[in-house]
Amino acid sequence: MNLFKNVVPLKTSKRSFWGALNAIFNRVSASRIALVGPDRACAEWLMRNGAFVRWKDQPGFVTHYNFLPLDPAEKHPYYIEEVSAVEASISYHGFDHFKGCDHILKIKFQKCWYIDNTCLKNLELLKNSLIHLEIDECGEITDQGLLHLSHLPNLMSLKIGKLDGVKKLQDCIKEINAKLPNCHIMPPSL
């Protein structure tokens, strides 16, 4: 007698597993932000997901999580000035980490598979500081997402690489330029 002959195997999607895991790694912890300050908590989030940060007045990027400042009492001497996210797994779930990070001038997103339209909309959290942005090979971004960048009034340079989800790039560039006339937009080289 085979008790299990009518049992249907449970199929789980590998994608949903990784998506759930990504949401966990990108989760915002208000208690951690209160303990170490917004810049340190943001740096921890970015580095936990494969990105690097450069502190204000420091020449190089922090490339290993263990090289972050250790003393939680040192909330104010360290401010993130630049983010390099290359093949990082940051997603919109964690973008609230940018709240209170008032010194971020430059961000590079390259081959970040979870960067999407919502992420670009949430960059508005950095509208008072962000002046340079580079986006390349982030396939989830569409025309609509790119247009969210027009809400960054201080943006002075926007470097756009290959974005497969953007269908009318020239129209997007014209619209962003109309709203941000001081922004130099560098489209992908053909």
From TrEMBL:
InterPro entries: LRR_dom_sf. It comes from the Eukaryota. Gene3D superfamilies: Ribonuclease Inhibitor. This is Mitochondrial ATP synthase regulatory component factor B. It comes from Nezara viridula (Southern green stink bug).
